Amino acid sequence: MTGAASGDDRPVAIVTGASRGIGSGIARALIERGDRVCVTARGADTLAEVVAALGGPEHAIGVAGKAHDPAHQDAAIAATLEAFGRVDMLVNNAGINPVYGPLLDLDLDAARKIMEVNLLAALGWTQRVHKAWMGEHGGAIVNVSSLAGVRPAVGIGFYGVSKAALSHLTAQLASELGPRVRVNGVAPAVVKTRFATALYEGREDEVAAAYPMARLGVPADVAGAVAFLLSEQASWITGQTLLVDGGVSLAGGVG
C-alpha cells in the first residue's frame, strides 16, 4: 500500500459521480483542505482530466465505472487502498434522473434503474467500504440527497422518491454504524450543474426569485457543507440530512 508505506496519514475519501458538478466540487474542497481522494464516474477520459486538475496522483486517483456495479465498487476501494493505504470517508454523490413528467406516465423499468443507482448503489458502497476499512478504523459518510426528497417536486417525482429513501437510509445506517462510523446527508435545492439544467435553463432569474438568498446554488455551496460533515468539527453529528437550499424551503418550494 503506497499510502501506508510512506507513512502519509492524510485522510482519504472516495467521491462517486465526481466527473463534474457537485461531485467534482466536493473532491476539490477536500483536496484544498489537505485530504486525498479517489474520484469515480463512468468516463475514464473525463476522470483523468479531473485528477490532473486536482493535482495528480499524489492527491487524487480516478477509477472509471458504473456506480451501481459491485465489481466497480470493489475495484475503486482496492485502488484507493493501494494508492493511499486507507479509506476514511465516502461521499455517495452519483445519481440519475432519466425521466421527466408525472408518475402516472413513469416507465417502471426507468423507476427501477433510478432506485438502483440513487439508493442501492449507496448502500453497496457503504457495505464494501465498511468491510474494507471503516468497520475497523472508523470513518464518515455523506449521502447526497435532494430537496426533492423532502417535499414533492413537479416533473421529477420519482427522483424525489429515490432521494427520500436515501435520506431514510442515511438515518438507518447512522443508527446501525455508530459510534465508529458517522453517516449524514445533504439535500440541495437547484444547483447550477449540467445535471439540473432542465430545472432553470432560460429562466434562471425567475427560479432564483423564489430563493431568500436570491440566487441558485453552485457546487461549492454543497461542497462546503459536505466537507464540514466529513470533518472532526461534525464529530457529534450523525443521521442528519442538511438542507442546502438557499432558503427556498422556507416558502414551501423546491426550487
Characterize the structure shown.
The protein has 255 residues and is of the alpha/beta class. The chain has a single domain, classed as Rossmann fold (3-Layer(aba) Sandwich), CATH 3.40.50. It is built from 8 helices and 7 strands. It has helices at residues 2-6, 21-32, 44-53, 70-84, 108-137, 157-177, 204-208, 219-230; strands at 12-15, 36-41, 60-64, 89-92, 139-144, 181-188, 241-244. α2 (21-32) crosses α8 and α5 packs parallel to α6 (157-177). Mean pLDDT is 93; it is low at 1-5.
Which features characterize this protein?
255 residues; alpha/beta; Rossmann fold; seven-stranded parallel β-sheet; 8 helices; 7 strands; disordered N terminus
Could you tell me the strand content as a percent range?
A: 5-15%
CATH topological fold name: Rossmann fold
The biggest beta sheet reads: 7 strands, parallel
Helix content: 40-55%
Number of domains: 1
Q: What structural category characterises the helix and strand content?
A: alpha/beta
Termini gap = 45 Å
Mean residue pLDDT: 93
Instruction: Specify the CATH homologous superfamily.
Output: NAD(P)-binding Rossmann-like Domain
Q: Which shape, going by the Cα principal axes?
A: globular
- Give the CATH class: Alpha Beta
User: What is the radius of gyration?
Assistant: 17 Å
Strand order in the sheet with the most strands: 3-2-1-4-5-6-7
Q: What is the correct CATH architecture?
A: 3-Layer(aba) Sandwich
Note the total helix count.
Answer: 8
